[in-house]
Amino acid sequence: MSPPHPIATSSPSERPDRRARRRQETIEEILDIAVDVMTEEGVNGLSLSEVARRLGIQPPSLYKYFPSLMAVYDALYGRATQALLDAVREAMAAANSGLDAVRRGLDACGRWTIDNRALAQLSMWRPVPSFTPSAESFRPSEQMVELIHDGLVDAVAAGELGPEGGSDEALYLVSTMITGVLTQAMANEPEEPWGGGRFSPALATLLDLLPAAYPPPPRRAPRRRSAT
After folding, report:
1. Are residues 87 and 62 in the same domain?
2. How far is Cα 72 from Cα 30, in angstroms, rounded to an integer?
3. What are the angstrom distances between the C-alpha of 104 and each of 89, 181, 213?
4. Do 60 and 75 have their domain in common?
């Protein structure tokens, strides 16, 4: 008779890891459901009771994962800003430095926003008056602004823009351009993909106006050698 198979046991260090993974998987599922609810009912239509119902648990059980509805919003905000930062960073890394990187980064921002409308509304338009994101959740948004600002500074260094093209004013102008285009697109053509319709194609034209707002210095003609 062969010896009985030993009973597999988990070491104390493994059990907490499995519990932590299961907990994180449940958190991600809650957030996925929350996005579905916001997409269907609007960002302000999110409720813990509806999330619990769709998850198949009682509402009090959600408090093991999130202490309040505002905590869910904060986690969603952090998810949104990190995903947007990743999209913009990847697009800019594949571009030439300067205005090309700025254009590609803002195009990626527009595309992500249109593809993730509920999360974008939460992170860009702040439709929940009582919600303020935590510093941790807000940090990726600050990093994205820094990326765009670095692109403008690179454009100045490359002679594509004048010195003021790397200023805070120029950054605010670019921010107004992308936000204005997205606001118009989402309000007036909610079913149009990015790049379609009347509004999202306008971003490229607006960005082409940057050198007119911040003219680069004139290029010096090469000096001619005098005949000897």
Report:
1. no
2. 9
3. 10, 15, 20
4. no
Q: Residue 56: which domain range?
A: 15-67
- Distance CA(148)–CA(215), nearest Å, equals 19
- State pLDDT tens for residues 183-214: 999 999 989 999 999 999 999 999 999 999 99
Same domain, 84 and 118: yes
Buried residues in 85-96 as b, exposed as e (16+ CB within 10 A) = bebbbebbeebe
Number of domains present in the structure of the chain? 2
In a 10 Å sphere around its CB, with 0-12 CB exposed, 13-18 middle and 19+ buried, how is residue 174 labelled? buried
Indicate if 93 and 177 belong to the same structural domain.
yes
Summarised one tens digit per residue, pLDDT across range 52-98 is 999 999 999 999 999 999 999 999 999 999 999 999 999 999 999 99
Length of the chain in residues, anyone? 228
Longest alpha-carbon distance in the chain? 109
Place of tokens 């004048």: 162
Asked whether the CA dihedral 161, 167, 171, 174 is positive or negative, the reply is negative
Contacts of 64 (CB under 8 A, 6+ apart): none
